[in-house]
Amino acid sequence: MAKEQPQEVYVGFSQTGTLRKDILEALKQVIHGLQTYERLRPLREEKSKKMNDLEVELAKIAKLSNKLNTFFPRSRLKDIMTEQKKAENELKLAVKDVLSDAPIKGKVKKVAVEEKEISALERELSAIEAKLSNLG
Amino acid sequence: MGTVPIYLKIEEYKDLVAIMNAIKDSIAKAETLIDDVNQLRDEEDKELSGCIDLLTEVKDKIASIDAVILNPEGM
């Protein structure tokens, strides 16, 4: 039995000339785009190289500037600033101590701890006394 | 503090001047490099802008082809 051939359906286009022209022009533009990319590539490579050179030069400047520092004696400005800051901090702490009731709280806490210890001792003592009376 | 004079040995002073000159040279080189990079970037931008124009044209052409393909004759 002969195999049934599928029905062939056709789609018609008018203005095929324009269509072909448009396709060719699009292709032409794409090729121009590829050419532009080819021009861009070496530019980018050169830019990357220049950027690397710039990085090297900047590192060199930083190193040389650092070296400059070694020619001059160390300034005491930093020490003075540190001393000033230390004094300010001490003053702030002193003011805080005066304003807050931290020392009083500390004392209260200490007294409470002592009381707890005494009551624990008393409890132990009464327990021992109870045991002794049981023995006696 | 800043008014206290500092005395350097002549050899050290020579080294100092040499370092200063090296720094100046490096700064000049860095400036040239930055100019070059800027110029390259401008060229790159110009090429990219041309590329965008080309892409827009391709897009228009494709849209025109698409319009023909999606509206075949007699359908």
Describe what you observe in this structure.
- The complex is a heterodimer of chains A (136) and B (75).
- Chain A has helices spanning 16-69, 77-99, 102-135.
- Chain A is an all-alpha fold and 136 residues long.
- The relative contact order of chain B is 0.05.
- The longest helix of chain B is centred in the middle third of the chain and has 61 residues, at 10-70.
- The radius of gyration of chain B is 31 Å and the shape is rod-shaped.
- Chain B starts with 9 loop residues before the first helix and ends in a 5-residue tail after the last helix.
- The A-B interface holds A 11-15, 18-19, 22-23, 25-26, 29-30, 32-33, 36-37, 39-40, 43-44, 46-47, 50-51, 53-54, 57-58, 60-61, 64-65, 67-68, 71-73, 75-77 and B 1, 6, 8, 12, 15-16, 19-20, 22-23, 26-27, 29-30, 33-34, 36-37, 40-41, 43-44, 47-48, 50-51, 54-55, 57-58, 61-62, 64-65, 68-69, 72-75.
Give a short synopsis of this structure.
Chain A is 82% helix and 0% strand. Chain A is mainly alpha-helical and 136 residues long.
Topology:
The complex is a heterodimer of chains A (136) and B (75).
Chain A: H1 16-69, H2 77-99, H3 102-135
Chain B: H1 10-70
Keywords:
heterodimer, A: 136 residues, mainly alpha, 3 domains, 3 helices, 0% strand, B: 75 residues, 1 helix, 81% helix
